[in-house]
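Researcher: Let's do a round of design. I'm pasting the structure tokens now; please hold your answer until I've finished.
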């Protein structure tokens, strides 16, 4: 009943305000393309340190089905698949021989890849480091050899054609990676690409990079991107960065402005470079991080607004996707992993914590607020859609993005309005080319984010035959996000 009353009230308000002249205007230009082929939004989903129960995993997959991620970034340890080398120098892999714990970890990876393969979700695969105690130096050519063997096995033998990208070294500019410097990373990528060509991997899977991490206060990782485009462009099939932003970088448009500059670097290197995907391999907010690697703000309403603002700036800058760090607290421990985990054990960055019950907090497995915005962005701006140009009012901390995609010959339009400010606004949406469209509307405000019984977002209103040539007005009563989605002509 609440849903239908809300729809009636919202429709009445829309009719009453459709011609309001004092509203701030967002103009959508469907034929002006910012991103021709969006990768969609990704999720970091790694083999778990604390594997969820079958019941919890069923719920997690259901939530993922709602989210419809455009891609997954999956990282694991090389020591989980390579057991060592025989006397003749040939590698010995877990799928050839191995103890139960090794095979169990391999099965965790298969579970993720099975999910992605069945649902046609692209996968970026990578490893944190070489096999510990077996290969202790990233420059050891055996690491590239076993990497190519692994990918051939997963694609050709196991049939995981969902694996399309490979991350050679996670965050190679960080001291924790074991990589020495930029020159060492370039040498590794050159060698790895040669091995991929030799073993027939390069035609199916391409290497991404530089995968560096940092912020605007630490510009060195962004300079790596410039150099990568010049130095190893023949080896790199996609460009990615990690960026854990401060609140001020989000509020002050610094994400959009710097990513515009970095996108231009790639464009200036020519059509071949400019046509390759560029995306954020990991993203999140740094402000508020505690206990080495925990972000308690993921439990707050505000984190959902901030991440929507972050993604809006990324797409507006012409970048083609972003990966949320991360899916579930239970995937990664900060330190040693006792059973059950304690309050300082897990990296708290997820959409939920599937170990909540074991830790005495069963409610921690509930969906956290930022899944609301991330899942809707992922659903409404899917892989293959186009991000189109928007002209927006000069309002502080306000962002708008729009995207289009074709389904069965019809054009879908998605719009996201982000008010990262407590000042209410009335926004008029216009498009010179859309005279009739039916829209559904989702709200994400502190006390207004409707969900179904599974905690998934549901529309708060629907609007029939909206004429965007004349303009359609909608209220943003406070800090929050509004999503609109519909099919032209309906």
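Researcher: That's everything. Go ahead.
Model: Designed sequence:
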């Amino acid at each position: 009943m609440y849903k239908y009353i809300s729809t009636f009230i919202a429709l009445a308000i829309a009719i009453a305000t459709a011609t309001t002249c004092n509203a701030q205007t967002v103009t959508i230009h469907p034929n002006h393309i910012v991103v021709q082929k969006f990768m969609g939004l990704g999720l970091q989903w790694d083999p778990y340190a604390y594997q969820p129960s079958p019941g919890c995993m069923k719920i997690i997959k259901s939530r993922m089905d709602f989210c419809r991620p455009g891609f997954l970034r999956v990282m694991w340890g090389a020591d989980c698949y390579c057991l060592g080398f025989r006397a003749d120098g040939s590698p010995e892999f877990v799928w050839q021989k191995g103890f139960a714990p090794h095979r169990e970890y391999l099965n965790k990876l298969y579970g993720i890849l099975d999910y992605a393969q069945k649902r046609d979700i692209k996968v970026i695969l990578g490893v944190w480091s070489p096999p510990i105690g077996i290969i202790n130096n990233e420059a050891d050519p055996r690491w590239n050899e076993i990497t190519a063997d692994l990918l051939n096995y997963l694609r050709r033998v196991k049939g995981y054609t969902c694996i399309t990208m490979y991350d050679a070294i996670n965050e190679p500019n960080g001291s924790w990676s074991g990589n020495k410097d930029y020159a060492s990373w370039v040498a590794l990528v050159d060698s790895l690409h040669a091995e991929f060509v030799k073993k027939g991997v390069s035609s199916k899977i391409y290497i991404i990079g530089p995968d560096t991490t940092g912020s605007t206060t630490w510009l060195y990782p962004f300079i790596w991107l410039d150099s990568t485009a010049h130095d190893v462009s023949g080896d790199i099939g996609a460009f990615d960065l990690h960026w854990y932003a401060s609140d001020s970088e989000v509020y002050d448009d610094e994400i959009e402005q710097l990513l515009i500059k970095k996108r231009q670097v790639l464009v200036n290197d020519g059509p071949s470079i400019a046509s390759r995907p560029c995306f954020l391999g990991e993203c999140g907010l740094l402000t508020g991080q505690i206990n080495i690697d925990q972000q308690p703000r993921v439990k707050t309403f505000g984190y959902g607004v901030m991440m929507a603002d972050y993604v809006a700036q990324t797409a507006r800058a012409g970048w083609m996707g972003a990966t949320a760090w991360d899916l579930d607290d239970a995937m990664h421990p900060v330190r040693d992993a006792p059973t059950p985990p304690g309050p300082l054990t897990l990296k708290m960055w997820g959409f939920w914590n599937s170990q909540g019950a074991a830790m005495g907090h069963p409610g921690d497995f509930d969906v956290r607020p930022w899944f609301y915005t991330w899942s809707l962005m992922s659903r409404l701006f899917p892989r293959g859609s186009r991000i189109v140009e928007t002209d927006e009012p000069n309002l502080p901390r306000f962002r708008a993005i729009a995207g289009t995609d074709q389904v069965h010959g019809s054009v879908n339009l998605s719009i996201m309005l982000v008010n990262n400010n407590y000042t209410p606004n009335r926004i008029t949406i216009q498009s010179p080319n859309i005279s009739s469209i039916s829209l559904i509307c989702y709200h994400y405000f502190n006390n207004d984010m409707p969900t179904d019984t599974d905690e998934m977002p549901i529309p708060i209103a629907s609007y029939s035959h909206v004429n965007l040539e004349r303009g359609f007005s909608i209220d943003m009563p406070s800090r929050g996000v509004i999503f609109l989605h519909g099919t032209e002509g309906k």
